[in-house]
Amino acid sequence: MTKRLFFFAICLLFFVSTIQAQTPDYKNPALNAEDRATHLLGLMTLEEKVGQLLCPLGWEMYEKRGDSVYCSQLFKDELARHYTGMFWAVYRADPWTRKTLETGLNPRLAAEASNALQRYALGESRLGIPVFIAEEAPHGHMAIGTTVFPTGIGQAATWNPALLERMGEVIAMEVRLQGAHISYGPVLDLSRDPRWSRVEESYGEDPVLSGKLAAAIVKGTGGGDISAPYATIVTLKHFIAYGIAEGGHNGNATHIGLREIHENFLPPFKSAIDAGALSVMTAYNSLDGIPCTSHNYFLTKVLKSDWDFKGFSVSDLYSIDGIHTSHFVAKNIKDAAVMSMTAGLDADLGGNAYKQLITAVKSNEIPENVINPAVHRILKMKFEMGLFDNPYVDPTRAEQIVRSQDHVAVSNQVAKESVVLLENNGILPLSLDTKIALVGPNADNVYNQLGDYTAPQSDDNVITALKGILAQVSPKQVRYVKGCAIRDTTETDIGKAVEAAQWADVVVAVVGGSSARDFKTSYQETGAAVVSKVQVSDMESGEGFDRATLDLMGDQLDLLKALKATGKPIVVIYIQGRPLNMNWAAEHADALLTAWYPGQEGGNAIADILFGNYNPAGRLPISVPRDVGQLPVYYNKKNPRGHDYVEMNAMPLYEFGYGLSYTTFEYSDLKMDRGASLEVTCTITNTGKVDGDEVVQLYVKDHYASVVRPVKQLRAFKRIHLKSGESMTVTFSLTDDDFSLIDNNLQSVIEPGDFTIMIGASSEDIRLERTISL
Predict the structure, then answer these.
(1) 8 Å CB contact between 602 and 449
(2) Cα separation, 650 vs 630, whole angstroms
(3) Are 233 and 280 in contact (CB under 8 A)?
(4) Average pLDDT over every residue of 721-730
(5) Which of 13, 222, 529, 722 could form an S-S bond across to 726 if both were Cys, CB 3.0 to 4.6 Å?
(6) Residues 462-515: pLDDT tens digits?
(7) What span, in angstroms and rounded, lies between the C-alpha atoms of 499 and 437?
């Protein structure tokens, strides 16, 4: 018996040793990600390597049959023919994808779809390489059944990094619970031209505000520790200077100096990367004649050499193809692919151009070893995320947690903190017994308050202003009349709106814009909408909808004037994706607010502010111009400060950092203490009768320097809460970086001289200041 057991043990040991000898190193979880990726790379064919760099459209990769979901034949073909390594927008649902609430995937089915795709990839491909799933997530995961937050410009209006960190945590969790890995967003393009169609996605005009908020979001998504179960690979958009294209045209050429890019446009990306962002998306525009998607200076020197970026870069959708088809720099798609790869671009969103690299390598147009580092970067992250060992998710948890009440509560808080009170003659807050005429195209329009990159919504998921108000007062106190559409003048009924106003104690008019896509809108292959002269939808913002003016469209201004003529007090609320023309409302409205695109909880947030349940404290992250003739208008322009125009003041209607409250605040006791850093303190006192938040803003002015400096630059800010009569000491720590500049050699230096420290409630409302010498 003993001999038999000994013989069995020897056989078992031999069997296990044989199996281990047959198991390649890259499948050994005991090895680190670097070594596993290196070993796997050495086993791959050229075709398999290139496949890892492809990221084609993903919404046709699954097949839904009733309550079950399976790999589609197209997915199987992609892996068999191209060895594809990642897919974009597998769960995306919108008019462009033709995925609806019925044909798309709820969170449970999305998780099941991911499991099906990974099971096939691991079991049926030669080397068993899992796939990455990349999803749009700029203000929530763009998928059915997820939590919808305010868009980027609204998030920025909160001036609250801690809150956005929590938002980032929610978004990342919802993405990962459904089996995706890469979250596209935040959008870090500085917006200095509101005509541009994608202002709504951005964080406004300032690099410091954008950078601090982006870093907070990235921290919430896991801070780069992608081994954590709910961490995502954050893809920052769009590298670089995409938001200030010529004429406000999306994707047009950008004309700007290299020093200005280093001083203002790169820092938000650097802040987010330092916080853990592991992916950067290139932009559609060109800079000084070089398309950003093939710009070696930014993709290799800045990202990989100067910043030691360990993540991977990815093109915007078909932007490699655009080097040939839009910029006309490459004679064909293959040349465009070689240009981008040589410049340091790692992955191809669209998955069309980089297929040509196989031919290019075989014809000696590019060596294979140029491709290897890009492949290694992507493989290493798949190992770090644990996808080779356990790529599967739990559909039940996805069903239970995605868009949970806790997550919706976060969306509600972001929405409330994003609303900016611009004017108030004392009409707000309203009493609960007020009779209200609720009027306007955005008072009860679900999709107009959600912004671009939003999936279809069930009827009970989104709270409009009408629903929010009716949740707090009796229906007998409210009369709702749409009055007009955003653009279409065939739906106008101003007379009925006037009747409601004459009945009411106060008029609440909800106007503005829309980025709501519909099935009548046509789309480019990049997903950008095409403006139609035949169909008049509400859409006047969102990717591809650039504006020549910023005026309210359709009959909205006529509606406001008619309501004002009734003599009843009027509260005007703009729901918008860009700062539209507010000149009339600023002069004639009794109260004026902007709620941006406030997301699914927007109506509750608006109602809470109207009735005084929440004291508004949003601050403008972007200047509101008086006229398009002023553009660009932004607070931190370089010296000298511009003089007035013949027709108007050169200053914006509302400046960066501006916003009112239902209470008042006093600033006092400015003190400074020099040590390793400059400690700046002041006391803020709530001198009003209402509890509320104040956003304390610190700006620095450099008096003289070797290069032209901005008139002032935001360096720090804090959003604080004070009860009525309460005081708080606020402390800012300024480091060397806060006094540095980019010199003529593109180096960050500190030059001795005088600096004025300014603390205030906006970029123009400075309450305390002191000059120091360094």
Answers:
(1) yes
(2) 7
(3) no
(4) 98
(5) 722
(6) 999 999 999 999 999 999 999 999 999 998 999 999 999 999 999 999 999 999
(7) 9
Please say whether the beta carbons of 148 and 464 come within 8 A. Answer: no
Q: What are phi and psi of 423, to 5 degrees?
A: -145, 150
Binning the chain into helix, strand and coil, the percentages to the nearest 5 are 35, 20, 45
Give the pairing of strands 692-702 and 713-722.
antiparallel
List residues bridging with 361 in a β-sheet.
none
Q: Which two tokens stand for residue 144?
A: 């059915």
Four-point Cα dihedral 434, 440, 443, 449, nearest 10: -150
Please report which residue ranges of 589-743 form alpha helices under DSSP H. Answer: 602-610
pLDDT digits (tens, 9 = 90+) for 563-608: 999 999 999 999 999 999 999 999 999 999 999 999 999 999 999 9
Nearest residue to 438 via CA among 387, 499, 488, 500: 500
The neighbouring-strand residues paired with 772 are 755
Which residue, among 158, 134, 6, has the nearest Cα to 58 in the 3D structure?
134
- Give just the sign of the alpha carbon dihedral 643, 767, 681, 616: negative
274 conformational bin, left if phi > 0, alpha if psi -120 to 50, beta if neither: alpha
Q: What are phi and psi of 84, to 5 degrees?
A: -60, 135
The CA dihedral of 47, 53, 57, 63, to the nearest 10 degrees, is 60
With a CB cutoff of 8 Å and minimum separation 6, the contacts of 342 are 294, 296, 366, 370
pLDDT digits (tens, 9 = 90+) for 673-719: 998 999 999 999 999 999 999 999 999 999 999 999 999 999 999 99
Q: Identify whether the C-beta of residue 709 lies closer than 8 Å to the C-beta of residue 715.
A: no
Longest alpha-carbon distance in the chain: 107
**Cα–Cα distance, 413 to 533 (Å, whole number):** 39
Beta strands in 393-435 (DSSP E): 420-424
Query: What pLDDT, in 10s, does the model give residues 318-377?
Result: 999 999 999 999 999 999 999 999 999 999 999 999 999 999 999 999 999 999 999 999
CA 330 – CA 342 distance, rounded (Å): 13
Left if phi > 0, otherwise alpha if psi is -120 to 50, otherwise beta: which for 24? beta
∠ at Cα 512 (510, 516), nearest 5°? 105
What do you get for the CA distance between the two ends of the chain, in Å? 88
User: Distance (Å, rounded) from C-alpha 338 to C-alpha 573?
Assistant: 50
